[in-house]
Amino acid sequence: MSMVQEPLGAGFGALVEDVALADLDAAAFRQLYALWQRQHLLVFRGHGLDREGLLAFGARFGQVDPLPDLGAGETRWGVDLAWTERPPFGCLLHARQVPESGGATWFACLPAALRLIAPDLQARLRWLAVQHGPNVHPMVIMQPETGEHSLFLGSRRESRITDVPIAESERLLNIAWSYGTAEAVTLCHPWQRGDIVLWNNLTVMHRHDAAPAGTSRKLQRARIQGRYTLAAPIEKEAA
Fold first, then answer.
1. Which of 46, 137, 147, 231 has the greatest count of CB atoms below 10 A from its CB?
2. What per-residue confidence (pLDDT) applies to 82?
3. What is the pTM of this model?
4. pLDDT of residue 235
């Protein structure tokens, strides 16, 4: 099948319209999966899925955890469950109810952010690890399925770089986050009712604007369970 796509941002994200996701055969799904690997984030319109259909579609990518709907509140930049040993591999949102304007969701592409960083600073970051809660992850990871190198920042709150003084940890994290949320690597998604967004939770951060006062937003959520322990490129190259 031919899958028409429209680029969404500079270097990542694609809009896929009028594809019946419930009817994808194995070959079409492989094509879609390869597109997701390249683009990191896909937006679907005219897909024909209901609530149960979203979970069935997500299950083709891995074990799915359904979650309570997301409401109208604002959230900060981050990835889901960064503090776990194997963070979720992907995330899904389905717009069930959205305001006429406002309440957008923002996404940031972390492989693109890494490419913005000067080589000497990249070399420093590749040897560092960040603690998120009880677990420690490399600051620069190798995307396990494609081999692409990416920052992995998790969430800013209560994270720190291990084995360096606190002041140095804060300095380096501030620098890394400035690249990770730079305008050049972010895109804003204004929701239309029915939109589905699928993104790689290891390579894309997100945040939500609050819905305007007096309006509501209801986004059906699901996660694709993590199946990879994150590894740094330097470890792979040395193995």
1. 137
2. 96
3. 0.94
4. 58
